[in-house]
Amino acid sequence: MGAGESAGQRQAAEPEATRTKKMWMDRDACPRRRAGRGEHSGSAAVAGMVAIGALAVLLAVGQWALPAWVSGRLSTALQEATRAQDARVQVQAMPASRLLQGRLDQVDIWLRDGWYGQLQVAQARVTATGLVVDLDALRRHAPFTQALRSAQSVQGTLTVDEAGLNDYFWSQMDPGRHVHWRLKPGRVRLEGSWPLPGAKAVPLVLEGHFLPVSGDRLHFTVDQLQVAGRSWPASFLDQLFPDLLSLPVQVWQGPIPLYIRSVETEEGRLVLQVSSHAEPAPPQ
Mean per-residue pLDDT for 87-92? Predict the structure, then answer.
């Protein structure tokens, strides 16, 4: 054939059998190319699903691990600060990534046989919302109060037993331990012998109840007064024993102070309702 013949002429010159063979080869190659593209797309989809699954696992582990770490550090710091027999802190944050900024949605605190300053607390249950903590302080094992920054609200219940109340009263106002408190449902009894100015101690029995004042004091309202076996008007107490009427109680100091809002007397114990907002009842 000549050099100038066209491709169409060359194709026409090919034997019929050769053209038929090429056509079937091209048809066979198309499914294989399509299959190759399908296998590549399928591999990419599987890889994507694996990545998403791994990310979900990491998020789930983080949602559990970060709160657990913060809870553990806060529990240890609280137990050291209060010298408690047992202290537990449970934190909640959603998503857990908020913990990386030290922001906690809610913190639940439980404590048994601990000290708030010089006041021994038999049991405490406290819930804080919108709490902000210093993660660097937690990592350094800093004291509990240094790890706290602020809170939107704190509410709780502190239980002080009779022995704890007497120890606190003696340390604050009666180092000679002349009198002691008896706690009964709905009423308080103070009995013993109290020294009068310039005279010997006289037998003393008072019955009444506690009321919070200014959030940091317990005011003892006297209903009945006996001195040396004789009944006297409650107003007589102001003249002879003015210091017995008001007991200072600082529940918690630091960046988030707590104040006494109400107090109830049960058998052998005082139950104090505390809050980060001071709203005490006025004395009666």
Answer: 91
